[in-house]
Amino acid sequence: MVSGVGKGLSKVEVKLRWDPSPFGEPPRHLDIIAATYSVDGPYGRPVYVVHSESRSPDGTINMSRHSETGLGFGFVEAMVLEFDRMSSAYGRVVVGVAVHQDGGPRVFGDITGAGVLVVEGYRQLLAEDFTGVADATAATVAEFTRDASGAWEFREMVRGFDSDPVLFTAEMGSIRQ
Questions:
Q1: Which of 16, 60, 104, 141 could serve as a FRET partner for 165 with CA atoms 20 to 30 Å apart?
Q2: What's the mean pLDDT in 41-57?
Q3: Whether pLDDT at 67 is above 70
Q4: Is the CB of residue 99 less than 8 Å from the CB of residue 152?
């Protein structure tokens, strides 16, 4: 799906949900991660990465909600991306989700009730439950690119990775067949 009617995207929210761990098990934890790429290097190394403990240098990407346990009450973690304020030096943003590996190796299939929602205002751009990447430890979900007119467009990009959150941030924006 490509979106880009008129002026393109302005303010997008990525929301994440998952159920708490069963009683007696360590908490299960998912994180939203965004990697921003320059116009000159859209598939190279990210200029910066935003996750639960950071925000973009200019404040255009930040976490508005964060959970380390999931509550089972809907979307408990959220990231806001303000494309209408983003510098023209940036041409691509990739958003993904990583499974924390506390308490042993875990994949999306181990996390009940997991899902991600990408919206612009009331318009839903993506709803994903990770079943297609159940054996992955991390996954990209969305790609935002700036077109020739400067408008931001959305593309669904659900791809699974088998890496820890640190390695995932380095490889999530790569070109992959």
A1: 60
A2: 88
A3: no
A4: no
From CA 119, how far away is CA 10, in angstroms rounded? 11
At 75, the amino acid letter reads F
pLDDT band of residue 177 (cuts 50, 70, 90) is very low
Quote helix, strand, coil % in the chain, to nearest 5: 10, 40, 50
Q: How confident is the model at residue 54 (pLDDT cuts 50, 70, 90)?
A: confident
Structural contact between residues 107 and 149, judged by C-beta atoms closer than 8 angstroms: no
Structure tokens belonging to residue 172: 């999530």
Cα–Cα nearest to 98, from 162, 7, 177: 162
Q: Enter the pTM of the model.
A: 0.90
Instruction: Find tokens 């209408």 and name the residue.
Output: 84
Match 């969305």 to its residue by tokens.
142
d(CA 160, CA 26): 24
Q: HEC states along 27-49?
A: CCCEEEEEEEEECCCCCCCCCEE
Distance CA 3, CA 34 (A): 19
What phi and psi values does residue 2 have, to the nearest 5 degrees?
A: -120, 130
